[in-house]
User: Fold Squalene--hopene cyclase from Kibdelosporangium persicum.
Amino acid sequence: MNKPVIGSPATDLGVADAAKKAIAYLYSRQRADGAWTDRLSSSTVSTALGLLSLARADDKAHRDRIERGLEWLKRNQRADGGWSMADDDPPSSPGMTSFAIAALYGLDRDGSAELIERGKQFIEGNGGYTVIPGMRDKGPKTWPAAAPIAWSLVGLKDVSEQPPQAVEAILLPSWLRNKVSIALPAILALGIMQARARTSSFPRRLLQRLAEPKALAWLRSALGPNGGVEECAMLSALIFLGLHSAGVGEDIQQASLKYLLDNQREDGSWPIDRDLEIAVTCYTVLALAEFGDTADEPRLRPTRDFLLSTQWTTPFTPLNIPAGGWSWNVPSGWPESEDTAVVLSTLKLLGLTESHPAVADGLRWLRSRQNRDGSWSEWVRNSSLLNDKPCVGVTAHVIMALEQHGGPHGPRTPIGKALRYFERVQQPDGASPSLWFRDSVHGTAKLLETYAELGAVSDPAAVRAREWLLANQRPDGAWPLTVEVGVEGGTVEETAWALYSLLRAGVPASDDAIVRAVKWLVGKQNTDGTWTPSPVGLYFEDLCYSDDLIAHSYALRALGRWLTCAGHPGTPA
Assistant:
């Protein structure tokens, strides 16, 4: 039942003040080039592999860095003996704990003996080694299965126990091998290492010998100008460790090592990715657009120029991706569908239409990347593999970008085909899980937001999504109600996604569910105008991350939409 809570400044719930502080904070974080840099949580896996790389490269030269990283690992062991996926946020993860054990055993065995033992006890008490990909028996075999490789490098496992990485995959046709997409750099580097360290049949040794120079050439083509691959410290470390152990690809080793040295944090840790600068710059503009005309905002003119400057104007040859897309960051991020779509939506808000050459190229790029089933994946079309499966969240952003730039709606159009994909994959209860964020709130909210963008909130799929979100709100007003991946409890990110989409779908600002969500968000704001992020971003399996500007920008966007729906549009501007 709706409650009559709107009608005067006294019933504003403190939203205007919260938004004013949040906007001021955002502009205080803006870079000179108009963009924003976020903070991704530090990662146990990246830190452990990064430290092993520095020690292999030159233990004495990098001793101070290694010591700082080891101190970070020791300081971030949780009370239960495990290590987390993101900073020291709960919950502890057996997989992450196995990487911390490898680094401590390899680099500080005697001094960390007690910590190592507590870590092993945590793993054994939380599913055992079979829950860690590739570690033992018939446990999960999904990529990267890098924990047993790290253990073998430090002597905790024999090299024969490493999960096989097939360097000969490079000999497959590109359309087939590229389906592995973002995992391929690690597979090739570690495959080269295994080909030189493990015995195999003569035919396979011959294939590996043919594959090695092609794999090294591919890796060189994937390196960014800063030596990184996907701006991912974990990948740079795996590439370095593989090639260093094999004694080949010295130039690639040095590029990867330089990337690690350049991106280690002062506290000795590394995040899973350096940052998501292009993505969070767009999310920030989307939030600010709820409070006024961003196309006429002088402070956002350099933002538009930054986004235009980061478009891929040449093909990305390692994966045969054409020119025209955008990545999540530069210079070693890879062009992909979701951030291309979000950039195009942002450029529309910054005053650029489909008549602009960059926008026209981006729209053409998006249309060319649609899968046969009507969906969009990130990098490789028509793949069913881990990171390039069709994704509701990715597809939602693409549909909205096409719609905002005048895309047609007919059943045979890209939008029409994508909506049929939505109908097929939506679960009977209305939920739609997303590939890149945990559980179902993100995907379900993005699906509902898409139908709202299309003016189709009465569509059965939209109705089911709205009903699922309302049925899965916590009593305190937050989302999610239940959790499969990560820690229980409401999060700023998921609450903001759900709140925004429900408001876009026409749920009144005075509705009890809406008011409870707004109160919860306002109550969670920190004194400096920020919100504390939670590890809801999902790379694969249970490897989650948190991001401060994802939490901040989406919370602000949801509150801005509420102000408009409640009759106070643009209040803080």
